Amino acid sequence: MQSDRWEHGSDFHWGPIAPVGPVPSPPWRANPTYWATGRHALLALMQHSPSARRWTRLWIPSYFCQSVVAALTTTEIQICLYPDSPIEAFPGTDDLPVRAGDAVLVVNYFGLRSRPSFVPRVSGVEIVEDHTHDPWSAWASESDADWCVASLRKVLPLPDGAVLWSPRGHGLPNVRPVAIEVQQASLQKMSGMQLKALYLAGMPIRKKVFRDLLLESEAPHKEAPVSAMTPWSRELLECMPCVGWCEQRAANHAALRRSLAGVPWLHCLAPGERLQGCPFSGVLLFDSPQRRDYVRRGLIESRIYPAILWDLEKTPPRVLGNIRPQDLDLSRRVISLHCDHRYSFPDMVRVADSIRRLGTAFGSDTADAL
Ligand SMILES: Cc1ncc(COP(=O)(O)O)c(C=O)c1O
């Protein structure tokens, strides 16, 4: 990346892939189906289930991306919330009043969790695991869930793509054709990723042009019928050195945590001690929403673009009631810093320095900040 074009975060750009040895066999290799997005994979499963599996209710964690929740409410299956969030070590599924015909979606938040040592199984209740944040974890490989899903486009530089598999060998939903809306969105995203790469390399590309392409490429997925992954994303997936990239992500995550250790107003979520996997991003929890917002604004001015995973209030307006006050509180104080293969140790130190500087300035500059 040319130094005057240095930036951090936001959408992937498209760059040449350096081969780093054999591409390992991912956990879904035995029986995958590939879908355009994680939402499409989940919807395909839900549409498959009423006849084949007879689900009537799907339990999802209270802390979850609201636009995904909105998509899940479009089927006849009732969506119910159970208490869970990234600051809890295990999903709060033990005491759920489940009954035959229910399914429970369990999330490995930010790749920080290990496989629960004991998952109570109730006859007729199916478990769906969401491995979006670390599809290559030991948990994903050793899973004995009925179904596993991962949105690959969130963790890899792919313009579309998600995978659904069944560790228990259940019959998978039939794959649909690639929807025209998905083809268009994917090609638009690919153009945006390519232009972003040229911009970062110092070429005379206007930022607005690739930003618009990347932003606009999300909308068609919402309108599209449930669709398969595009054939070009399938090809690209086979080229990706996923394990090398996981190692880079883990090293970047560790560098960020080390650089921010001891900051009194900040807590960086840490992987469990025995984690055999790789964190997705640096999830930072501020002492107050005001300091979070102040730091975030300053980071954006410094061309560091964190994500909020997730804003439970704004994007889109909260879909279901009964979100716990502690989930809302968490969502107002959290930001997520990208740790993926695009970045190296000096990038992570630069990001950490900016966070420390801005967060400290908030303390001495509160009136300005509020
Ligand atoms: C944990 C998790 N699951 C599922 C999804 C849905 O994936 P997609 O955006 O590809 O529909 C997301 C997306 O943000 C996610 O973070």
What would you say about this model in short?
The protein has 370 residues and is of the alpha/beta class. The chain has 13 helices and twelve strands.
CATH-assigned homologous superfamily of the largest domain: Type I PLP-dependent aspartate aminotransferase-like (Major domain)
* Class from helix and strand fractions: alpha/beta
| SSE series | EEHEHEEEHEHEHHHHHEEHEHEHH
The number of strands is: 12
CATH class of the largest domain: Alpha Beta
The strand order across the widest sheet is 2-8-7-6-5-3-4
**Domains (count):** 3
Unreliable parts: none
Bound molecules: pyridoxal-5'-phosphate
Distance between the termini: 35 Å
Shape: globular
User: According to CATH, what is the topology of the largest domain?
Assistant: Aspartate Aminotransferase, domain 2
Give the name of the CATH architecture of the largest domain.
Answer: 3-Layer(aba) Sandwich
Mean pLDDT: 91
- Rg on CA atoms, Å: 20 Å
Helix content: 25-40%
Give the percentage of residues in beta strands. Answer: 5-15%
Count, helices: 13
Main beta sheet: strand number and arrangement? 7 strands, mixed
